[in-house]
Amino acid sequence: MPKTALITGITGQDGSYLSELLLSKGYTVHGIVRRSSSFNTSRINHIYEDPHDAGRRLILHYADLTDSTGLRRVIEASLPDEIYNLGAQSHVRVSFENPEYTADADAMGAIRLLDCMRDHVQHTGRQVRFYQAGSSEMFGAARPPQNEKTSFYPRSPYAVSKVAAHWFGVNYREAYGLFIANGILFNHESPRRGETFVTRKITRAAGRIRAGLQRKLYLGNLDSRRDWGFAGDYVQAMWSMLQHSDPGDFVVATGEAHTVREFLEESFSYAGLDWKKYVEIDPAYFRPTEVDYLLGDAQRARTVLGWNPPTTFRQLVHMMVDSDLRLAESERLVQDQKFAPTLALV
Ligand code: NAP
Ligand code: F7E
Questions:
Q1: Which of 82, 190, 264, 300 is 20–30 Å from 276 (CA)?
Q2: Domain limits at 82?
Q3: What is the pTM of this model?
């Protein structure tokens, strides 16, 4: 039987790749979109289906992780076999500015959704599986390499909220026998990455500097190390966790760490630029408490799930730079066209 999935955070980077994956496997995909005064569906426009189309397999619902009534209604309307909780205020620096909202969406949002699922399972007797999007940020200051046995040491309101969501998942699994898998994913990036995360900020700047649209790039701490993988590879691991016979917790990582400076060097040199001519340090981007070194040990995901990420660090950087060079070039063309009529007048 074709399955049905419900994704919170479908409009985000991971939500868009996961939707593509599930649709390619024959799933019907329901997604939660939060109300915004401007369009927030750009990452899924290419798979969007008109509500008037018969037999469509991508169905969007307005709901919000801060509103349990709406979540309950969407679960009852979509009858999912699998729920992927990807929705979150996912920016670590922003979580210091908006701690209460971050905890509400990321920690309380998870328990709201779990509780809706618990009631739904109890009332209907249906089997539903749940994926919780945990993060390497939960390890924070713990010594690398980090794996499922490493103790959490969160260093931001975002990370603390994700730790709470992780333990809500463990508790609901043990208390009610629900199938709940916690992914502990290390940083994963792509051409669809939000533009205020450091990787995309760097590749976006490389493209715009090459196109003559930007002069400087202001960054914070260049010394922190991250284990960066490709988001397209990581959504495969999410799906695999829900296909396994038993629910569990899995670290998902490449096992290779690089500094922000190394990401910068690789991006700019691939774009034919010397980063030292363009980059300035702005302490505004420093964090009150930094996470210095994240390096994942994903042996359990490799052996139990058979998950092995094919994309290398260099391939990831080049994919992002190539995409942002094309994007900047199209921005430049639009800008040139805008000025063309004015030039023609003089
Ligand atoms: P993202 O691009 O920031 O997407 C977050 C998604 O959550 C967006 O669809 C966003 O909607 C939605 N959202 C935010 N607040 C919400 C709310 N109150 N109610 C409902 N939806 C809400 O994040 P991502 O990179 O795809 O990451 C997916 C998940 O994995 C997140 O939970 C993140 O914390 C976690 N994670 C990410 C990484 C990583 O390296 N990418 C690593 C570990 C864990 P809008 O589009 O309207 O903003
Ligand atoms: O920062 C440093 C910054 O914001 C990476 C989220 O997806 O991954 C992400 O969180 C590093 C940090 O990602 C700038 O201080 C320097 O050390 O790209 P980031 P993150 O904080 O690692 C985890 C796994 C998640 O779960 C999160 O949801 O880069 N850095 N200069 C900078 N960071 C930013 N954003 N901007 C700078 O200008």
A1: 190
A2: 4-193+227-256+290-311
A3: 0.97
